Amino acid sequence: MTKKICVLPGDGIGPEITAEAVKVLKALDLGLEMEEGLLGGGAVDATGNPYPEATQKLAQAADAVLLGAVGGPKWDSLPREQRPERGLLGIRKQLNLFANLRPAILYPELANASTLKPEVVAGLDILIVRELTGDIYFGQPRGIEMRDGERFGFNTMHYTESEIRRIGRVAFEAARKRNKKVCSVDKMNVLETTQLWRDVMNELAPEYPDVELTHMLVDNAAMQLVKAPKQFDVMVTGNMFGDILSDEASMLTGSIGMLPSASLDANNKGLYEPSHGSAPDIAGKGVANPLATILSAAMMLRYTFNLEEAAAKVENAVKKVLAQGYRTGDIYEPGTTKVGTQEMGNAVLAAL
Ligand code: NAD
């Protein structure tokens, strides 16, 4: 199998952090082919289009896309169709990425960065699997109309069983690569759509006898995430609940520069990117934390290329540099060694 990666550094700190992830990928010597393209504000400046045709060709031909971040104040006043975020939405849509995977991992060394007590969160390792292309966010009909002399707002929540089944499979498969537990989150006590969600998850379970399936109502899940988050391994849920729960889970860790993410299509082609933005306030200063992007590259090795050993190697190298006390500014505390973006990348390379 060829292993073609389209690298889209983007704007702000994007090029700095992506360069470190590329360095790590190259050092693994896995026969990866990498080609760079333009996306976001830089692409608008060069071509007038945030997702230019050449990038579209590159992304479609690749097996995986590694993305830095896009956007910045320079492009905020452009017409909507030229905004950098349009490029991001465009690529996500064109590649049919329906499954969003967001791990929330709290390395023991960074337990103080969380707003929760260290004993509640130290060692946390959750994966939230969120459906990305359906649910009430896309359901028709929708709108705001006049009815009976007052304004009336409405949206439609719906899922087909095949949509539920395909995201369910992603969750079960992911659990197989982890601690073999899936918690499906719904609101079946009031919403029929999510009753179907629960039924389909139950129908899938016998195909994965090695994975334990449990169910939780979304209100309880929101509570349990802050009360006892370490009870979870993989959580799977719909678009709207996932939007909220994945942000909640990521903030348990307290460090935005550490959070990777993956969005997958039905064939495990994926877009891999840090959860944070382009951080214009620190762009070009060489101080951004590249670890979220390096960990996104590790997810790429695991989920698109099925290279579990190489993925674990990168993750262990990150753990090692944290244990050695290296910290970028965002995760620095007294007594540790403050390093810049490139030094952090070099420390990961050395730990490999
Ligand atoms: P942001 O995530 O870029 O920054 C929030 C804060 O976190 C800033 O103080 C920043 O310095 C810090 N930060 C973020 N990543 C960091 C890292 N790797 N290392 C150290 N510190 C880091 O969010 P924002 O400020 O709301 O948005 C800035 C720009 O990014 C906007 O133009 C926004 O539209 C865009 N954005 C892009 C994406 C994306 O490309 N996926 C996501 C979110 C925001």
Give a summary of the structure in a few sentences.
This protein has helices spanning 14-27, 41-47, 53-61, 84-94, 118-121, 161-176, 192-204, 218-227, 239-253, 291-303, 308-323, 341-351, and strands at 4-10, 33-36, 64-69, 99-105, 125-131, 143-147, 150-154, 181-186, 212-217, 234-237, 260-264, 270-274, 326-327, 337-338. With 352 residues, the chain is an alpha/beta fold. The chain has two domains: 1-98 and 265-352, Isopropylmalate Dehydrogenase, CATH 3.40.718; 103-254, Isopropylmalate Dehydrogenase, CATH 3.40.718.
Note down, in words, how this protein is organized.
By secondary structure, the chain is α/β, with parallel strands linked by helices. It has two domains: 1-98 and 265-352, Isopropylmalate Dehydrogenase (3-Layer(aba) Sandwich); 103-254, 3-Layer(aba) Sandwich (Isopropylmalate Dehydrogenase). Helices cover 39% and strands 20% of the residues. The protein has twelve helices and 14 strands. The chain has helices at 14-27, 41-47, 53-61, 84-94, 118-121, 161-176, 192-204, 218-227, 239-253, 291-303, 308-323, 341-351; strands spanning 4-10, 33-36, 64-69, 99-105, 125-131, 143-147, 150-154, 181-186, 212-217, 234-237, 260-264, 270-274, 326-327, 337-338. The strands form three sheets. Strands 2-1-3-12-11-4-5-10-8-9 form a ten-stranded mixed sheet, with helices on both faces. Strands 6-7 form a two-stranded antiparallel sheet. A two-stranded parallel sheet has the order 13-14. Helix 1 links the parallel strand 1 (4-10) and strand 2. Helix 1 crosses helix 10, helix 1 packs parallel to helix 12 (341-351) and helix 8 packs parallel to helix 9. It is globular and about 60 Å long. The protein starts with a strand and ends with a helix. Bound molecules: nicotinamide-adenine-dinucleotide (NAD). Nicotinamide-adenine-dinucleotide binds at residues 13, 17, 69-72, 85, 88, 256-257, 273, 276-282, 288-289, 292, 328, 330.
